[in-house]
Write a structure and sequence with these properties.
42% of the residues lie in helices and 16% in strands. By secondary structure, it is α/β, with parallel strands linked by helices. The protein folds into four domains: 228 residues, Alpha-Beta Complex (Spore Coat Polysaccharide Biosynthesis Protein SpsA, Chain A), CATH 3.90.550; 80 residues, no CATH class; 144 residues, 3-Layer(aba) Sandwich (Rossmann fold); 165 residues, Glycogen Phosphorylase B (Rossmann fold). Strands 1, 2, 3, 4, 5, 6, 7, 9, 11 and 12 form a ten-stranded mixed beta sheet that branches. The chain has a six-stranded parallel beta sheet with strand order 14-13-15-16-17-18. A six-stranded parallel beta sheet has the order 21-20-19-22-23-24, with helices on both faces. α22 links the parallel β20 and β21. The radius of gyration is 29 Å and the shape is globular.
C-alpha cells in the first residue's frame, strides 16, 4: 500500500484521552500517514501537551469551539493526503485496524465511505460505529416508547440495525464520525461535513449524501477501535439535547419539509413520554426532563441551537445556501440488470456522484414525483420480451400513458441507440410497428456511443432527423472487475498449458455473435492452440456449438452463466479475444476485453473502426467479410507479438467524464423541449 492518509482528530478539553488516541494511531503500520489535531479552544493544556509529546503532529489551533463538522473541515483543508480518516479523540485504534480499513478501501473504491467496529473498555460491542437511517416508522417507535421496550429489535428499533454484531462486511445507511475513512477526492466531491451541524448528526447527513451520489458506505469489521462514547461531552440531558438538535438538523437537511415537520413532532413526543416516565417511576435521572426543558432550543436544530446549548452565536458561513435542484432520472434499466452487465450501473453511479438522483423505472414515481428524464436503452427488451402479446401491449400502454401524464411537469424521454436494429425480432409485426411509432413520437433526444453510431441512427430512423442528439461513450470495466490476476495464475487455475496460444470468446452468447462460425473456423486451422468459448447460450445455440466443436481436444466449452469473479480469470488466460459478429454497432464485450488488457479481433462493422482509432491498432484488429482461417491464424500471431504496452490506455472511457457529458446532453434536451413547448426559437 502506498496511499497517504491524513488522520483528523478534533479535540476539545480531552487532553489525556487525545494523547492516548494519537499514540494508538502512530503505532499503526500505515504506509504514510500524518496526524492533524484540530483543537477547538481547549483550556486544559491540550495544545501544549500534544505538541510536546508528539512534535510530528500538525496542530491546528482554532482558538474557539467551532464544533465537530467545522473542526473536521478545517483539519481536512490543512492536509493533502490521498485519504482522510476521522477519529474521535476518545477512541484508541487496535493494532492493524487502520491498515485493514485502508486496505479494504483500496480494494473496494465503489463504497466511498468506510467505517469499522467499536468496542467498550471491557471488550463488549459498542454499536455506535454505524446506524440505520431515521424513518417515519423509527421515529414513531421512538415517540411511543417501542424503541426502549424492544431495544435492538429490527422491527421496533430499526436504527440499531437489529442484533447484528458489526462482525461482517456490510453496507450501512450511516457510518459515524468516530471512525470514518474516505478518499480526499470523494470527500471533496461530497463537499465535506455540513457546517450547519455543531455536534452530532453531521456524519448521518454526510452518509446520506454519499448514498445519493452513488457510494455505498460500508463497515469493515477488521478495523476495531475502543470508544468512550460521548467522552468529550459527558452524559446528561444537555448531551441528549445536542443529539436531538443533530437529529432535527438531519431531518431538515435530508427529508422533504412536510415529513421533516412530522419527524420533529415525533421526536418531541418521544422526549415528553420519557420525561413523564422518569417522573412516574421516581427516577433520580433527569435526562429526559432536561431534554424536554431544552426543547425550545433543539427542536429548531443547528445552527440556532448553538446559542442555548453552547452559548455562542454561529458564524454567518454556517448556514449553507440552498443547493441547486438535482437532476432526477428514471432509467430502463438502471441497476436491476447489473448482474448481467454492469454498464448501466457504472454509468448511473457516476451520475449519482455528480449529484443526479437515478433509479429504475417506476410508474408510481413518474406519476407522483418529479422526473426530469426517462432514459431508455433497449426498448424492445423492456417492452416486448416474453411470448405473451397481451403483456407487450399492456407494457406499452402503461409506459406511454404514464409518460403522457408526466410530461406536463417537464419530463423528457431520451433513448440511447445502442444498436440501430434489434438483435432479435420480438412479438408480432403489428405490435413491433406500433412500438416503433410510439417510440419515434415521444423521443426528445437521442444518445449514441460513437459519432458513427449517431449518423447510423439518423440514417436508420428518418423520423429522428431533427431530434437533438449527442455522443456519450461506453465506459470501461476496470471498476467493475478485479483484473489483477496474472496470465500464469489464470492458466494454472484453468488447467491450460503455460506456453499455449489461447483464443477466447467470453460473455453471453447470442446468435448474432456468430460463435459457431468461430468454432468451425478454428477447427479448420492446424494451429497448436486452444479455443475457449465461455458464456451462457440458449439451448438450441448451445447444442449447435457443441456439435460444431465435436471431439476436438483443442476446443474448450463452458456454456453457462459466468460469475463476476470468473470473467477476469478467463480473459487473463487468453492471448486473443475474438468477437466474430454477424452485425454490430457497439461492443461492450470488446471494451471488456480491452479493460482486461487483451487484444481483440472484430469485424470492420459499425463503430469498430472508431474503437480501433481510439485505442490503437496494436490492441484492436479488424477483418473484412466473414472470418476465415487465415485471418484467425494471422491475428493470433499478431496478438502474441511483443508490439504493445502492458496496459491499454482507457482514460478516454472514464465513467465520470461520460456521466458529465450525459448530464449535459440531458440538460440540452430539456431546454430544447421547453423551447418547443413554449413556441420559442433557440
Amino acid at each position: 500500500m502506498t496511499a497517504t492518509v491524513d488522520v483528523i482528530i478534533v479535540n476539545y478539553n480531552t487532553r489525556d484521552r487525545t494523547l492516548e488516541c494519537i499514540g494508538s494511531v502512530l503505532d499503526q503500520r500505515l504506509p504514510a500517514h500524518r496526524v492533524i489535531l484540530v483543537d477547538n479552544g481547549s483550556t486544559d493544556g491540550s495544545v501544549e501537551a500534544i505538541s510536546s509529546a508528539y512534535p510530528e503532529v500538525l496542530v491546528v489551533d482554532v482558538g474557539e469551539n467551532v464544533g465537530f463538522a467545522r473542526g473536521v473541515n478545517r483539519g481536512v483543508r490543512a492536509g493533502h493526503g490521498e485519504f482522510v480518516l476521522l477519529l474521535n479523540p476518545d477512541a484508541t485504534a487496535f493494532p492493524g485496524s487502520l491498515e485493514a480499513l485502508l486496505r479494504f478501501a483500496l480494494a473496494h473504491p465503489e463504497h466511498g465511505v468506510y467505517g469499522g467496529r467499536t468496542v467498550r473498555e471491557d471488550g463488549s460491542l459498542d454499536p455506535s460505529s454505524c446506524w440505520g437511517a431515521p424513518s417515519l416508522w423509527s421515529l414513531l417507535c421512538f415517540a411511543t416508547g417501542l424503541t426502549t421496550v424492544f431495544r435492538g429489535s429490527r422491527l421496533f428499533d430499526p436504527e440499531s440495525l437489529g442484533d447484528w454484531r458489526r462482525d461482517s462486511v456490510r453496507e450501512v445507511p450511516i457510518v459515524t464520525g468516530c471512525l470514518l475513512l474516505a478518499r480526499r477526492a470523494d470527500w471533496e466531491l461530497l463537499g465535506g461535513m455540513d457546517e450547519r451541524f455543531f455536534l452530532y448528526g453531521e456524519d448521518a447527513e454526510f452518509s446520506a449524501r454519499a448514498w445519493k451520489r452513488g457510494f455505498r458506505p460500508v463497515v469493515v469489521p477488521d478495523a476495531v477501535i475502543q470508544h468512550d462514547v460521548g467522552g468529550s461531552t459527558g452524559s446528561s440531558g444537555r448531551k441528549m439535547a445536542m443529539v436531538m438538535a443533530g437529529k432535527v438538523t438531519y431531518l431538515w437537511a435530508v427529508w422533504p419539509r412536510l415529513l421533516a415537520v412530522i419527524g420533529i413532532l415525533l421526536l418531541q413526543a418521544g422526549s415528553g413520554v420519557r420525561g413523564v416516565l422518569e417522573i412516574a417511576t421516581g427516577s433520580r435521572r433527569r435526562t429526559w426532563r432536561d431534554v424536554w426543558g431544552l426543547r425550545g432550543a433543539w427542536r429548531r436544530g443547528y445552527p440556532r441551537a448553538e446559542r442555548t446549548l453552547f452559548g455562542r452565536t454561529p458564524p454567518p458561513g454556517s448556514v449553507r445556501p440552498k443547493a441547486p435542484r438535482p437532476l432526477v432520472v428514471q432509467a430502463e434499466p438502471a441497476f436491476r440488470t447489473q448482474r448481467a452487465n454492469p454498464y448501466n450501473r457504472d454509468l448511473y453511479r457516476a451520475m449519482q456522484r455528480r449529484g443526479a438522483r437515478v433509479g429504475d423505472l417506476n410508474y408510481w414515481h413518474m406519476l407522483f414525483r418529479r422526473t426530469d428524464v426517462v432514459h431508455l436503452h433497449w426498448p424492445d427488451l423492456s417492452f416486448l420480451t416474453g411470448p405473451r402479446r397481451l403483456i407487450h401491449i399492456t407494457r406499452l400502454t402503461l409506459f406511454y400513458g404514464t409518460l403522457a401524464l408526466s410530461r406536463p411537469r417537464g419530463t423528457v424521454m431520451v433513448w440511447t441507440v445502442h444498436n440501430v436494429s434489434s438483435h432479435e425480432e420480438r412479438s408480432s409485426r403489428r405490435i413491433r410497428s406500433a412500438a416503433h411509432r410510439l417510440l419515434m413520437r415521444n423521443i426528445d433526444g437521442i444518445l449514441a456511443l460513437t459519432e458513427g453510431g449517431l449518423t447510423a441512427a439518423r440514417a436508420a430512423y428518418p423520423e429522428l432527423a431533427a431530434t437533438p442528439g449527442a455522443v456519450t461513450r461506453h465506459g470501461h470495466y476496470r471498476d467493475a472487475y478485479d483484473f489483477s490476476i496474472s496470465r500464469a495464475e489464470a492458466r494454472d487455475r484453468l488447467g491450460l498449458p503455460a506456453d499455449a496460444k489461447v483464443v477466447a470468446s467470453v460473455g453471453q452468447i447470442r446468435d448474432y455473435k456468430n460463435v459457431p462460425h468461430l468454432v468451425r473456423t478454428f477447427r479448420e486451422t492446424d494451429a497448436d492452440a486452444v479455443l475457449m468459448v465461455s458464456g451462457s447460450a440458449p439451448k438450441p445455440l448451445a447444442s449447435q456449438i457443441r456439435a460444431t466443436a465435436g471431439e476436438d481436444p483443442r476446443v474448450r466449452l463452458d456454456l453457462r452463466f459466468l460469475p463476476d469473479d470468473e470473467l477476469p480469470t478467463l480473459l487473463a488466460a487468453a492471448d486473443l479475444v475474438v468477437l466474430p459478429y454477424r452485425r454490430i454497432q457497439n461492443s461492450g464485450s470488446a471494451i471488456l476485453a480491452l479493460s482486461a488488457n487483451r487484444p481483440v479481433l472484430v469485424p470492420d462493422l459499425g463503430a469498430m473502426r472508431e474503437l480501433q482509432a481510439d485505442i490503437g491498432g496494436e490492441w484492436v484488429r479488424l477483418y473484412d467479410g466473414e472470418l476465415g482461417a487465415d485471418d484467425l491464424l494471422a491475428s493470433l500471431d499478431w496478438a502474441c507479438a511483443p508490439i504493445r504496452e502492458e496496459s491499454v490506455d482507457v482514460s478516454s472511457y472514464d465513467w465520470d467524464a461520460i456521466a458529465l457529458s450525459t448530464m449535459d446532453a440531458f440538460e440540452e434536451f430539456r431546454q430544447k423541449s421547453r423551447a418547443r413547448n413554449t413556441g420559442s426559437v433557440l
